[in-house]
Amino acid sequence: MTQISEQQLSSSWKLDLRSLAIFRIGLALTIIFNLATKFTQIATSYSDLGILPRTELIDRIIPPEYWSINLITGSVLGQQLIFIGAFIAAGLLLIGYRTKLATILCWIVLLSLQNRNPDLAVFSDSCLRLIAFWAIFLPLGGSYSCDLALSTSSNIPPQRVLSAGTVGFITQVCTLHLLFCRQLFADSEMSINFWLNVLVIGLIFLLWHNHGLRIVAIAYLILAQFFFGEFLSMAILSVAWLAFIPSLIWDVLARQVYSKEIEGLRINYDKDCGFCKKVVYLLRTFLILPNVPLLEAQGNPSVYADMEKYNSWVIESDRGKRYFKWYGIAYVVGISPVLFWLEPVLRIKPLMRLGNKIYEAIANNRRFMGNLTKPLLFRPQKIQPSSVSNIIAGFCLFLAIIGNLNLFFDYSDRIDNQYDRHIEQIVNILRLDLPTTKN
Question: Which residues of the chain have pLDDT under 50?
Fold first, then answer.
């Protein structure tokens, strides 16, 4: 019984790094879309010239713990600069560079926008804010990211992670989904639809040993969002369920895309060119060629001679054929499991000529290009959360549960003591409160 319980805990509460990467990309795109829709409303919604100047907001009866970086300035230009910073943070999250910091910045922006004008916050805004908060405790940069590409860690990262952050994230997503269903369906429909979703979510945890049925259950929860609710709400919750995709899916896909061309590929670069080294590491990651060797051309006299002759990196195929400049790019993209469909486009003759000219221009200005990539640093990457991170995530989960009990139960008659007020204050500061209405 103990062994089964441990296996069930491991399978039910662990998340695959590859699933988290897909979730990260979807989350970043959703945030960018959310910011883009609000950018056009800056003057009317977030500046002192609009419907809610800062002085009026401060005078309103709202929780005093609410804070917002948008309160720093009331000018339209100032708000635009804040939004531009938010777009940059979301872009960094998208490519997975300094992922933890980018996630924190995105959460701060989402929280600040809602606190700056609470009247505009709808169900989807609250979902996005809460999911972004729990994403802070997840290793979103553990796969398909710049952080992974430039990692100097020698240890092979685990495929799946279990932490207080994963428990908090899973709990939050399940709660939001059920809350969405409860608020969506009328009373006459709720007894069937709501409890059906409760059953499906329960099956995800109970069917820890049956990957096939778990996949069906997760697919149902993802697809269910496309049939109900407004666009952004269903997009956010659908993206969140992507993090639950089991490892079996990725393992099967990895076997399907395996080829001798990938196994025999060799990428040789100039070790004296910092720009070149970073580019090949990034290409290997984003073209999903994780086991392809990246070799210093100087280590092989024949390869080094070709590098000097053509002023280019040297791509070696499984048959020993060598490709240079743009031809090398086209070849590597052509055997990528995800971007292979771009190869015919890259081989169009006018584009090939243009690509070679661009490549030559970069090759002749390596020092300048190296300065552009200086912010991209090789550094160790830590996948497993620290003890401090687990403690903070566990404490936040406790606060979220206690602070939102009144949403699901009649908790209005609880004793209004100092302990309850402290919890409410922290919940308000972190905005861990659940949405109460769906607009």
Answer: 1-6, 410-413, 415, 438-439
